[in-house]
Design brief:
about 650 residues, single chain, 4 strands, 4-stranded mixed beta sheet, mainly alpha, 29 helices, globular
Amino acid sequence: MTSAPADGSSGRTLIRRLADWASDLELDDAPDRVVAHLGSQLLSQLAAARTGYAHPLGRRIARAYGGPLQPDPARAAVSLAMAAICLDHDDTAYAGHLSHSCVTVPVVYARQLRLDGRQLLTAILAADETAARVTAAATLGPFRGQAAAHTHLAGTVAGRLRALDAPARAWVNGLGLAFSVPPWTLTPGFLSTDAKGFAAAAPIQTGLTACDGALAGLRGPADVLEHQEGFLRRYADVPLPEEAVAGFGTLWHTETLSYKIHPGSAYIGAAVDCAVDCAAGLRAAEADPDDIAEVVVEGSLLTSGLDRASRARHIGPDAGVAALNFSLPYNVATALLTGTLEPADLMPPAVERPERWKLAAKVRTVHDPHLSRAALLSTAPLGQALRRAGEHADAWVRATDARAADMLPPSWLAPETDFRFATKRLGARVTVRLHDGRELSAHRAQAAGAVGSGEHTALAREKFLRSGGHPEVPHLIAELAGLDANGVAELISLALSGAADEARAEISRGERRRPGRSRRTNSVDTRALEGAYGRLLGSADSVPDRELAELALEAAALAASDVLSEVEVETAAVDALLASAPRDVLVDLVRRNAAHLLGVLDRMPPGDEGHWSRVVEDLRDHIERARKSARTDAGDERGEEHGAGS
């Protein structure tokens, strides 16, 4: 039995009830369908981070905060979260963009804490459920979606403390400390500048600091959520405290996750899908962009409201990526012209192409009451909260947008008690009118990947592979519950190796430290080597078997040596390995041994820096030679094929 709150109030506060449940939450407590979402969520977030790091903004993030595999988990969490949020290519739940803290924090601490697969999945689950519930309690207020930065206070505290298997009292104090100083997102920076990334970074930093304090014995207010001067009173127009604690073990917020196919706001996702459909029709009709007279996008109040807010700001080729993410005209025009919408469309040279902006000027948005009704009936993003609010929902909706009052579901509808059939019906209809009178139209009841739209595992896998991720990662995540700590560390390294290589190269070329301010580290800087291994594994199918065998044995020998030094792999050992191991095993040995070696290097104490730098550089040169030999062999084969066919 939990003791009474220290402040003397009777009963158990919201935070105490959350902490008691989530701190004891185990993976087996969740149904298989919920656990399946955890793998897709992890894969989707890794893909969002990879695409973020590939963008110029992501490279600046890595320059500022370092990469995702650096030894400092706090800085790694900030970097990884900002990279994942910067292109709006993330997943969303009924209440909150959870993964920037709920996945990121457990992932970066998994390496430091040596978590196995079940422990990592459990930490993500506990973080999801805690953060989503607190976010849901404040949903009917000024902050939703990515602007609800407070989501990541809860996600960070829960993700880290569950990874540590910390007791409930640490959760109470950690959440109490964090929610005593919640972030308040301001629209000008969030909607149009790189400041949007701080909606994830700032609360993660606060949450980690709160964890440090709680673990050391600092105390926070246990009633900070529901106190008359507390969080919900300040952050919600209609506080919904019951949302924070309703349905423990039956309402699994994790299974309300939606997965984005295209980068950009969830409010324009269905419109982009429709534009992709119309693009195929335009090609079949042999219509050029100049043949288009106008493009009409019909959507819900959420879609038309976002369009109004976006148009109030200048958005053009020089706009920041945040502004582009929220621009319905630019994204719809791009999808019509190219038949898709990819992260590359949010950077030069694509964003500078005048034909996109010429077509974007022809796009207008119309509110469709039927689509608004469907959106308000859905679980996400507001339906469950409106049903929880009951008779108070009408007044809130009228104050927010009076037109929506007539579209509200009846107030007697009860909140959902099970999310297995959750929906997010943010639909759209796009009509393309040509100058010759022809029309093309497409309708989507909801965006591809939205909760309720079907299978998500294949979708998350394809998203990760499109991000340039290693093809083995989805298979490893499918087996994550059975991986040991070494396997988890290898998975994370393989998934993120090379993600910020270009930024790292810029750091090494451009960083200048003031005299006397050089920072000592307790480990070897393995970032360049990590990136080289990542690129090698990405092209391993064409690397000669002998090169793979030599690299596998070299990594194993270096990792096993007491003092890092040059090693010479015997020809007989290479021949023996080639005789006993098929090609797929050789690739796997390179992967495993490389990850093990990188871990050994990370833990090395300071020593003869000049010596180990030469060893690491020699190894990296060997890896690059192996990759070049693969390209040369492939080129020779192509030349032979070309000659034979001439």
